[in-house]
Design brief:
about 525 residues; Rossmann fold; six-stranded parallel β-sheet; 18 helices; about 10% strand; globular; binds 2-acetamido-2-deoxy-beta-D-glucopyranose
Length: about 525
């Protein structure tokens, strides 16, 4: 039995620990994005919850993915009359297929670009309406203010969370790969176009002259989209609620901390900033055992192993001729195949192929029998493939997918094929056999995996540390470069160079005038003398 004094001491000690824990349980407001972005934000929320933080999530009443009634977060629902419908992708998909099949001209490329612009414009228009709805709802804003959040964590590919953090005057942290104006770094760090390929350009960090011209054109397209279609919409909301002196661009660039969903195993090396923390692959984890029926199927593949295929959350329906060709190709292989596919069952489906609605992708990728991942190239899937060291055959469709896959191909770990051309010349079969039979693909991917895993701290733990860091210090102002407050002519020292050039010019002109007048004087003297 403990002496009385010791017991009191222990009691005190445990009270200190308890209160320490309570003090360190912060309040976090999350303004997430839908779709695959929500999938990994949810993983971060679970981790925050398990650290004892309380998390509220802002969503609309027409949310696709963000559900109510989970223990790890509470929802704050904003009723909106209009929501972004992910069917918008289908007409775009049809245009992309036409272009990839070479059945169309420059005109259809232009019309695709217009369609993309209009989709982007609409998405942000709907976001701005949601933000307006939020800011005009006095009760909602008051209750958010009274909640005294320690920080706002948002995905800045949509701008509502950025403005909300400003309205509530709390520190802002990003879970970011994209901002409303393009790839995350572009809004923050110096990004020379000579070796930083723009998204969508399909270029790497080594560019010829012509490729650099192409890169510049893509940069101009991104700038156009941001400058005319996206930023003005958010600026209008800022004007209305915060006054015109608050610039949306400054709010976007002024976040305290950028948790970047990339790392330099995946991304090409580039300049960065002190408040950027790389958490690429934070959602990856060691594989758990498979459900029994899947394990049985995987084991039945014998020495040949298994191929898995998934085209992500967006592409649910493909044209029947493509799915038939994919199924027919799989049927020719000795491997077993697990294919995540919605829609009609292809007529050509072989008996080695299992079609599923959903699959435990991470657990499958970590299974030693998996030989190949047929993927669309979304960031999550590509990073899971890197983490588990499984080589990839990529069937990219849009957004950053081609560029993500290119980063693997460049390192000899993937083959890329246009989805619309899988039916031409057995392209698809050749690509699969190449990656399966040539050991360098697997070797290169495993090397990426080793590099990615060789870090002093796991990416998710790093993210948690830095989120708590911002809460402890009420921001991270000391890490923010002042660059984002500077107008462009100061940022590039244009004013200094101009004033220097002007000074030199004035001195030269003064000299010229002086010598000219001296010379004129002499000449005229000579002239009078000669007369
Ligand atoms: C969401 O809220 C709006 C506005 O109150 C309402 O018109 C709409 O029917 C609601 N939608 C859903 C799916 O609840
Ligand atoms: C699967 O199909 C192949 C050829 O199409 C056939 O040889 C084989 O017996 C079939 N296997 C099963 C288990 O039905």
């Amino acid at each position: 039995m403990l002496p009385q004094g010791n017991a009191t001491f222990l009691l005190l000690l445990s009270m200190v620990f308890l209160s320490w824990r309570v003090c360190h349980g912060g309040k976090i407001l999350i303004v997430p994005l839908e779709g695959s972005h929500w999938v990994n934000m949810d993983i971060m929320i679970k981790a925050l919850h398990s650290q004892g933080h309380s998390v509220d999530v802002v969503r609309t009443n027409q949310s696709w993915y963000i559900q109510d009634g989970f223990p790890h977060y509470k929802t704050i629902t904003v009723p909106v009359s209009e929501a972004f419908n992910h069917d918008f992708i289908n007409p775009i998909l049809i245009k992309i297929f036409d272009i990839e099949r070479g059945e169309s001209s420059f005109l259809s490329f232009a019309s695709l670009q217009l369609e993309m612009f209009s989709a982007m414009f609409n998405m942000h228009r709907i976001m701005c309406k949601m933000a307006t709805k939020m800011f005009t709802d006095k009760d909602l804003m008051n209750s958010l203010k009274e909640s005294k959040y320690d920080l706002v964590l948002t995905d800045p590919a949509w701008g509502a969370g950025i403005m909300l953090a400003h309205a509530l005057k709390v520190p802002l942290v990003y879970n970011v790969r994209w901002t409303t104006s393009g790839e995350g770094h572009l809004a923050l760090a110096p990004s020379p176009l000579s070796y930083i390929p723009m998204t969508g350009s399909g270029l790497t960090d080594k560019m010829t002259f012509i490729q650099r011209v192409k890169n510049l054109i893509f940069y101009a397209i991104w700038q156009f989209q941001d400058g005319f279609l996206i930023s003005p919409q958010y600026q209008a909301v800022c004007d209305k609620f915060f006054g015109p002196e608050v610039r949306y661009r400054n709010l976007l660039q002024g976040a305290d901390l950028w948790l970047m969903r990339a790392d330099f195993v995946f991304e090409f090396p580039r300049p960065t900033m002190p408040n950027v923390v790389y958490i690429g692959g934070f959602q990856c984890k060691p594989a758990k055992p498979l459900p029994e029926h899947l394990e049985e199927f995987v084991q039945s593949s014998g020495e040949h192993g298994v191929i898995i295929m998934s085209l992500g959350t967006f592409v649910s329906e493909l044209p029947a001729d493509i799915t038939n060709k994919v199924a027919a190709t799989f049927a020719q292989l000795p491997q077993k195949v697990i294919w995540r596919h919605k829609g009609d069952r292809p007529a050509t489906l072989g008996n080695n192929t299992l079609i599923v609605d959903w699959m435990p992708q991470n657990d499958l990728l970590g299974h030693p029998k998996i030989k190949l991942f047929v993927a669309h190239g979304g960031t999550n899937g590509v990073q899971e493939a890197i983490y588990h060291g499984v080589p990839v055959v990529g069937l990219p469709v849009f957004f950053d997918q081609y560029d993500n896959l290119l980063r693997l191909k460049q390192r000899g770990a993937a083959q890329i094929l246009a989805l619309a051309t899988v039916d031409k010349n057995n392209n698809f079969l050749k690509a699969i056999q190449e990656v399966l039979n040539e050991p360098s693909y697997r070797f290169n991917m495993q090397r990426l995996s080793t590099l990615h895993r060789d870090q002093p701290i796991k990416p998710l733990d790093n993210a948690l540390f830095w989120i708590e860091f911002v809460m402890r210090h009420k921001g991270a102002a000391h890490l923010k470069a002042v660059s984002y407050r500077l107008p462009w002519y100061i940022y590039h020292s244009v004013d200094v160079v101009l004033s220097f050039l002007t000074t030199v010019a004035v001195i030269i002109i003064l000299h010229l005038v002086f010598f000219r007048s001296v010379c004129l004087g002499k000449c005229s003297i000579r002239k009078t003398n000669g007369k």
